[in-house]
Amino acid sequence: MAVLQRGYRRVYRGATIVTLLCLVYLTLSNSWTFQDTTKHFEVDSLSHHEAQYSVDLDAAAARKSTRSMHIALINTQRYHFEVVTPLLHAFSRVLHTQLELFVHRGHAERMNVLPFLKHAASGELVMREWEELKSGELMYRPDIAVLTTCRRDLEELGEDFTNPDSPSSPYEIVCLVHEAVEWENFTSPWRTILEPWVEQSRVNFVVLSEHVHQFVAEHFHEPYNVTTLPIKSKDYHPSAALAQRLPGSVRLLPVFPPIFDPTPLYPKKSTVDLPPEPFALIPGKFEPWRRNYTRIFEHTRKHLPLIREYGASIQLLGAGQPPEIPEDLKDVFGIVRGLDFDQYWAFASGASALFPAFASENYLIDRASSSIATSVLVGIPVVGTEELVFEKYKYIESGPSAKTNWIQGDGEEEMEVFARIIDMGREESTRRKGNVKKQRQAIITRNHGWAEEVVKGARMRIAEATVPRVVQATTQ
What we know:
Blueprint: H1 2-28, E1 43-47, H2 59-63, E2 69-74, H3 81-91, E3 97-103, H4 105-109, H5 114-120, E4 127-129, H6 131-135, E5 144-147, H7 150-157, H8 159-162, E6 172-176, H9 189-199, E7 203-206, H10 210-219, H11 221-224, E8 226-228, E9 250-252, E10 279-283, H12 293-301, H13 304-309, E11 313-318, E12 333-337, H14 341-348, E13 353-354, H15 370-378, E14 383-384, H16 386-392, E15 406-407, H17 414-424, H18 426-464, E16 466-470
Helix pairs in contact: 3-5, 3-18, 7-9, 15-18
């Protein structure tokens, strides 16, 4: 026992000596410092609209900020979710952002669109009722509000959100223009609402196809002083001019093709049997002012022997009251309606070609066709003229030599092209469908870059109009 006690004493003395030596070393060492117990100022950004308690502006430092940008993606309507989905996909992948989707939940659950929204989001989808914006319950001020049905959204959202001087309003609006001609009405409520935003240069217009971009650039310059942002060769990314803020002007962003990949959510079992291949597709609402069914019927009669020989057909896929199929064509025309989004796109993907069958030239002048976007979504070539493919809807073709779509010759009818497709056989049709899918992925990648540049531009403009704000200055 005595030996054990002596051992303990030796260990204790040794530990004491080591401790004293360490204290001496640390006292003499330059690396020894005492922790500062004072909590230093934390800096957050504050808009000039809230700057009465601010200190000096440091915009250069603010431009380097990576603070999280709040993005509100808004759709007050029950339609246009085929546009909401790719915007959600693109913006949710931008670093240093927080995105929330504002819709009516009943609208988002309509036609089984909700799974596509969840799949499009990078991470968990944050979805809120858009009425929260109207009631001022948001609890933060969005940096960017993306209005996917802009004119309707402006009318619905209310004074707290649409008054640019309100503390609940976003710093900038991205206003999606669907039918550009509607914005030429000087007395329209949406024009009136937007005027003070334009005066402060807090508006960005965006459109869904190249010809509408051209229309807006040419026709909106006078009322809106539109600043057209150039599109770089081979991509859709905005240039550095995106960061410019000119008083009393609107920035016209580069085209945003509404493209995403719906194939992961195709149903395992379709509620509708696919017709035998080959078949052509005419998709969209069954409204005679949208599509010229009479012309299609007349042209089909010229090629009935070939169509019947190969067991081909033309499928009308859509919603609403369908056209009356003539008795002599009922064996080559099919009508499919009332499908949810997953069933709709899965059915469409089986076609060999898509006919736009436009009844109006407006789809080549001042508005974008959802049917053209559908072709890229589901991976099927469009039957169209060189004007349609290479000028009006450039995004669907990567170049004249790509052979992605089916080009109509001068004076050639859509049904004549379909006859050529039938004659070529399945191998060429399959190859072109593969090219469309490659183009789809290229567009999705470019859209991600588009969203990054839009956020970057807004961040720089907001930085120019922000000041450091003292958040906390306490001593513990």
